[in-house]
């Protein structure tokens, strides 16, 4: 699927237009009030379904084919085309996508896979569910993604690593050129966790094109949603076939499987109802990503002079701002101020994976990963979803500025 919106993705004019006249616009306007006289909270996320999505769902319900079927196949084909890959396999959610991809790639019991400690726990859980052992390398403190230098350090210390599972966090791609170079040098597979990065790019290529496989989530707060859902994309026919079988109880994938189960598998299938929503969301994804980038540019311009770090976008990357995450050693106080001003925020993630109780028995749980641990203490995400109004953006900026300028 190609982008048909007339504004090119990544066009610098979008950011320039958003920032134009910033100095002349007041950021201390009073928030708009609801009819009962109370102010309207600014939500951290606001999932939205179009009328087209509702109509498509209604047509699926009316037809009565609610489970896996032609609607799911169409969604897979369109999503693969969008990502620039040969194949896509839909799943029930992002975690099942990661698990099925690792099973399809042939992860075996005890195999060690390097991943990020600074992510939602599903990234590492999927490795364990597939029988492997997650090994954590530290993150780059500016991008919050796997630091290739630390990955190289881990590779030099261990001889049991079979793969890399980098995470594209907050909508920003990991340093895939460097990580893929390491993978090639050490004969490792690469599975991209792209669950937060639909449409993000590095060196002009969309995430999903770099690894042996990549996995996406369609949870309600993501850049596009199916309610719950996931997707594996790959250029490898063998991975696509094994993944498609695995998510469908280990059946053959040629449509003749019936009750013949040729391998161990799960019921990780996506429903036709979810696929119908996903197809409409995919059509809107380019415009929604541009809106997120416009909001991010607005914040960048108006928060630049404050003592906090705003998100980094490397020159070769295109951030899609699943989250707009700032960093400050006053994180908890700023979070409290924003809550008082009815601005919702999120801390993603307060506890690194290697410090989670469920990881106490994992061999690398006691590792020293200072950058991940510092980030966990400092990061705070501000509302950046496409549904933000001008009033919402002013309210967020005013609250952040007031926190730092009235201390």
Automatic annotation (TrEMBL):
<comment type="similarity">
    <text>Belongs to the DegT/DnrJ/EryC1 family.</text>
</comment>
<keyword id="KW-0663">Pyridoxal phosphate</keyword>
<feature type="region of interest" description="Disordered">
    <location>
        <begin position="1"/>
        <end position="45"/>
    </location>
</feature>
<dbReference type="GO" id="GO:0000271">
    <property type="term" value="P:polysaccharide biosynthetic process"/>
</dbReference>
<feature type="compositionally biased region" description="Low complexity">
    <location>
        <begin position="11"/>
        <end position="26"/>
    </location>
</feature>
<dbReference type="GO" id="GO:0008483">
    <property type="term" value="F:transaminase activity"/>
</dbReference>
<dbReference type="GO" id="GO:0030170">
    <property type="term" value="F:pyridoxal phosphate binding"/>
</dbReference>
<dbReference type="InterPro" id="IPR000653">
    <property type="entry name" value="DegT/StrS_aminotransferase"/>
</dbReference>
<dbReference type="Pfam" id="PF01041">
    <property type="entry name" value="DegT_DnrJ_EryC1"/>
</dbReference>
<dbReference type="InterPro" id="IPR015424">
    <property type="entry name" value="PyrdxlP-dep_Trfase"/>
</dbReference>
<dbReference type="InterPro" id="IPR015422">
    <property type="entry name" value="PyrdxlP-dep_Trfase_small"/>
</dbReference>
<protein>
    <submittedName>
        <fullName>Glutamine--scyllo-inositol transaminase</fullName>
    </submittedName>
</protein>
<dbReference type="InterPro" id="IPR015421">
    <property type="entry name" value="PyrdxlP-dep_Trfase_major"/>
</dbReference>
């Amino acid at each position: 699927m190609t982008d048909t919106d007339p504004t090119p993705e990544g066009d610098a004019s979008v950011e320039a237009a958003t920032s134009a006249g910033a100095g002349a616009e007041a950021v201390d306007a009073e928030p708009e009030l609801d009819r009962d006289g109370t102010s309207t909270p600014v939500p951290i996320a606001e999932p939205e379904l179009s009328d087209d999505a509702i109509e498509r769902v209604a047509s699926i319900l009316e037809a009565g084919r609610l489970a896996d079927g032609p609607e799911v196949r169409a969604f897979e084909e369109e999503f693969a085309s969008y990502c620039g890959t040969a194949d896509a396999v839909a799943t029930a959610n992002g975690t099942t996508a990661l698990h099925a991809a690792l099973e399809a790639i042939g992860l075996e019991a005890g195999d060690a896979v390097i991943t990020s400690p600074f992510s939602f726990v599903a990234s590492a859980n999927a490795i364990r569910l597939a029988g492997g052992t997650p090994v954590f390398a530290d993150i780059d403190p500016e991008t919050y993604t796997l630091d290739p230098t630390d990955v190289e350090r881990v590779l030099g210390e261990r001889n049991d690593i079979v793969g890399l599972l980098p995470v594209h966090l907050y909508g920003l791609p990991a340093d895939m050129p460097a990580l893929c170079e390491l993978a090639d040098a050490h004969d490792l597979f690469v599975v991209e966790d792209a669950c937060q990065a639909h449409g993000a790019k590095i060196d002009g290529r969309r995430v999903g094109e770099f690894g042996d496989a990549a996995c996406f989530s369609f949870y309600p707060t993501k850049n596009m949603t199916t309610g719950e859902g996931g997707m594996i994309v790959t250029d490898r026919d063998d991975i696509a076939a094994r993944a498609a079988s695995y998510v469908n109880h280990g059946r053959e994938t040629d449509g003749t499987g019936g009750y013949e189960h040729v391998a161990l598998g799960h019921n990780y299938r996506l429903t036709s109802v979810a696929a119908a929503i996903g197809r409409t969301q995919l059509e809107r994804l380019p415009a929604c990503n541009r809106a997120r980038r416009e909001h991010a540019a607005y914040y960048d311009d108006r928060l630049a002079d404050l003592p906090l770090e705003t998100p980094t976008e490397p020159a070769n990357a295109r951030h899609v701002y699943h989250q707009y995450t700032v960093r400050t050693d006053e994180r908890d106080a700023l979070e409290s101020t924003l809550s008082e001003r009815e601005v919702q925020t999120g801390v993603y993630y307060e506890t690194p994976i290697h410090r989670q109780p469920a990881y106490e028995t994992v061999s690398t749980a006691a590792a020293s990963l200072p950058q991940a641990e510092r980030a966990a203490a400092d990061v705070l995400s501000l509302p950046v979803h496409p549904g933000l109004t001008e009033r919402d953006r002013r309210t967020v900026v005013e609250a952040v500025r007031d926190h730092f300028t009235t201390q």
